[in-house]
Amino acid sequence: MNVDPNSLIPFVNLVNECCGVMEDDYVGTWLTTPNSNFNMEKPIRLFSDGDTDRLYKMLYFIEIGEADLI
Q1: Which of 6, 47, 52, 58 gives 20 to 30 Å between its CA and that of 30?
Q2: Does residue 2 carry a pLDDT above 80?
Q3: What's the start-to-end Cα distance of the chain, in Å?
Q4: Is residue 70 part of a domain?
Q5: Helix 8-21 vs helix 52-63: angle between axes, to the nearest 10 degrees?
Q6: Chain segment 14-32, per-residue pLDDT in tens
Q7: Ramachandran region of residue 13, left (φ > 0), alpha (ψ -120 to 50) or beta?
Q8: 25/29 Cα distance (integer angstroms)
Q9: Is there a domain that residue 11 lies in?
């Protein structure tokens, strides 16, 4: 997986959003674990593919209690 060096700020923003809805020490695990909400894709893969809308929508649903972390 190649990561665009220009994606550092968007990645930091994503991590900050994750920290707002889950324990800080779980963010790395959540980003790198296959997730049933994403057809068993890892959230970090969605980020690297530019599919951030799906990630932010999922974080919203997690925040309001409509989705689970895994």
Answers
A1: 6
A2: no
A3: 22
A4: no
A5: 20
A6: 999 999 999 999 999 999 9
A7: alpha
A8: 8
A9: yes
Distances (CA, A) of 11 to 14, 27, 68: 5, 12, 21
The one-letter code for the residue type at 9 is I
For residue 1, tell me if it sits in a domain: no
Examine residue 53 and state whether it is found in any structural domain, yes or no.
yes
Q: Is the pTM of this model over 0.85?
A: yes
Tokens representing residue 14 in the block: 């994503």
d(Cα 53, Cα 23) in Å, to the nearest integer?
21
Domain that holds residue 18: 7-63
**DSSP of the chain, one letter per residue?**
----GGGHHHHHHHHHHHHHHS-GGGHHHHHHS-BGGGTTB-HHHHHHTT-HHHHHHHHHHHHTTSS---
